[in-house]
Recover the amino acids of this structure.
């Protein structure tokens, strides 16, 4: 009998520290599956973020580096430039990529670094207790916007993927969601395309994943998936941006 | 060649294959030299978007096993401290050149030595040290940069070249050593892709109880070894000196001229010039009968290390200026004469 589904070689067989209903475990697994399918486990060098996924390197079974908060794409640039034969990707949250690391993100993209970015957008800072992120929706309550995000004082949700798509150095940007089997299949395809782009030397590719954070959304895991589908995608529409 | 260019050439000769930097005066010649020569020698040059990006690119390149370097001047080095702390925590070898200028704040672009504390005390967060080497000539800018890469690799530690705007911009002849291909030490910990081995992780993050303390104890053991083995200094007319001047870098050149003048007048004066600022050459302070005069282009930073080295066993005087002023040969001579004829001698 043919075995069509098994534990990915690139993912260690461990329980994760993530909360019930969190999207990180799913995103880790999808990436691990794609790395296996592409046969690149021994070529991959991943950069873990600062945030809930800070110990992603404990779960993935390939070479990984840490990076200071926001600096993942600077670290990725250093690694990829001295080892162009390796497959280098960053895994970053919204605060990491679109607030404290905005400079590194925009300029790595503008240089057209041939690296891949997996951008987990859950609209909050999870690790530190659910503060407002650059991607927090208007009226969304967080620990630092107790009355809900107010554009007058906190500005608007930052659509950094759309911003990055404007840059000529950026070759592929797609927003996907981890809210349903259909969307997860699409997410996996996007992950694969972004890594294949790098293997083929196409250039900077980014996949944004709308990812549930039940704990800091104050919702059940099921209600969180519904919130992505019914509310979050209105601000962050899915599909290929570039 | 200028001192700044000599640092760049020294790095290339030492097998540095990755440089990232950001424009700031008075170190721009170094970055320009790297832009001109790094690619020709098969390396990577990146003008980074920010100092923080530059040091974190160096983190990445070093993590991937390359000899990597960045450079800047005082305000830019302050920005790099985050990355230097991570490099120390992740035990990566990297070289950072600081061509010091006046501070605090934006200060000015005149040469200064005001970043001594920042360089020798762990300028960023956490219990760590960088190796700190202080050249006093163009030739030494080259030689000590080569040494910095060797020591950084040997101890898996960041190493700082502490130069200043005067040293960086002045021109002197340089003897370049062509040693052929540099043999780099094996780096089994580096991120190269896990072909035929277990996955490597480069990190400074230890959440499990006790693990971070273990890392810190390991670092402290390493620092002890560095303090034992790597103290370096130069002595000039020191053996019979009644007054020993202590100065490094540009300041040591002026102090040396003052010693020559004073010796011609029969005064027993010498110079002790630290080459390593961390580890500070405590072993050199073995003659408690002398009187010491510490001279800095700052307001008493190295002075503290001299006082700690002597532990009250000898008198220590100080002469320092900063913010554009440099103690002159004449100021030194006047100060030495006062000490020389003082009751303690």
């Amino acid at each position: 009998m043919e075995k069509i589904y098994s534990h990915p070689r690139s993912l260690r067989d461990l329980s994760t520290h993530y909360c019930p209903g969190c999207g990180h475990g799913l995103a880790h697994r999808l990436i691990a599956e794609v790395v296996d399918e592409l046969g690149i486990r021994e070529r991959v060098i991943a950069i873990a973020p600062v945030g809930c996924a800070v110990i992603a390197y404990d779960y993935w079974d390939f070479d990984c580096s840490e990076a200071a908060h926001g600096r993942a794409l600077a670290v990725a640039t250093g690694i990829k430039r001295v080892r162009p034969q390796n497959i280098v990707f960053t895994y970053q949250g919204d605060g990491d990529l679109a607030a404290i690391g905005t400079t590194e993100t925009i300029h790595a993209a503008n240089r057209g670094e041939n690296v891949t970015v997996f951008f987990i957008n859950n609209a909050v800072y999870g690790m530190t207790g659910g503060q407002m992120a650059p991607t927090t929706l208007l009226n969304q309550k967080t620990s630092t916007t107790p009355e809900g995000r107010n554009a007058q004082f906190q500005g608007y949700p930052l659509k950094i993927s759309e911003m990055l798509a404007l840059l000529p150095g950026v070759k592929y940007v797609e927003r996907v969601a981890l809210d349903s089997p259909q969307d997860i299949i699409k997410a996996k395809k996007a992950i694969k395309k972004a890594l294949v782009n790098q293997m083929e030397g196409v250039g900077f590719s980014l996949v944004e994943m709308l990812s549930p954070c039940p704990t800091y959304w104050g919702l059940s895991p099921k209600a969180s998936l519904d919130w992505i589908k019914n509310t979050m995608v209105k601000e962050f529409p899915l599909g290929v941006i570039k | 060649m200028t001192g700044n260019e000599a640092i760049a050439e020294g790095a290339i000769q030492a097998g540095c294959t990755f440089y990232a930097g950001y424009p700031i005066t008075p170190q721009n010649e170094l970055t320009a030299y790297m832009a001109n020569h790094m690619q020709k020698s098969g390396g990577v040059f990146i003008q980074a978007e920010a100092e923080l990006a530059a040091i974190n690119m160096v983190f990445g390149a070093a993590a991937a096993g390359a000899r990597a370097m960045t450079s800047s001047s005082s305000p830019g080095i302050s920005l790099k401290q985050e990355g230097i702390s991570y490099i120390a925590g992740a035990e990566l070898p990297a070289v950072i050149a600081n061509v010091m200028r006046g501070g605090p704040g934006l200060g000015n672009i005149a040469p200064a030595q005001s970043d001594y504390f920042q360089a020798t005390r762990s300028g960023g967060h956490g219990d760590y040290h960088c190796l700190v080497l202080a050249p006093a000539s163009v030739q030494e800018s080259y030689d000590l940069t080569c040494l910095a890469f060797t020591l950084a690799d040997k101890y898996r530690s960041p190493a700082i070249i502490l130069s200043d705007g005067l040293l960086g911009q002045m021109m002197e002849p340089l003897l370049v050593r062509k040693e052929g291909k540099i043999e780099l030490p094996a780096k089994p910990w580096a991120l190269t892709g896990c072909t035929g081995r277990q996955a490597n992780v480069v990190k400074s993050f230890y959440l499990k109880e006790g693990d971070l303390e273990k890392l810190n104890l390991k670092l402290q053991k390493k620092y002890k070894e560095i303090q034992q083995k790597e103290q370096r200094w130069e002595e000039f007319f020191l053996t019979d000196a009644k007054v020993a001047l202590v100065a490094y870098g540009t300041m040591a050149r002026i102090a040396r001229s003052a010693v020559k003048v004073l010796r011609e007048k029969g005064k027993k004066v010498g110079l002790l010039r630290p080459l390593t600022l961390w580890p500070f050459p405590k072993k050199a302070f073995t003659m408690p009968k002398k009187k010491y005069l510490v001279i800095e282009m700052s307001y008493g930073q190295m002075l503290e290390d001299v006082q700690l080295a002597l532990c009250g066993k000898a008198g220590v005087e100080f002469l320092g200026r900063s913010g554009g002023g440099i103690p002159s040969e004449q100021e030194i001579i006047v100060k030495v004469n006062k000490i020389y004829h003082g009751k303690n001698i």
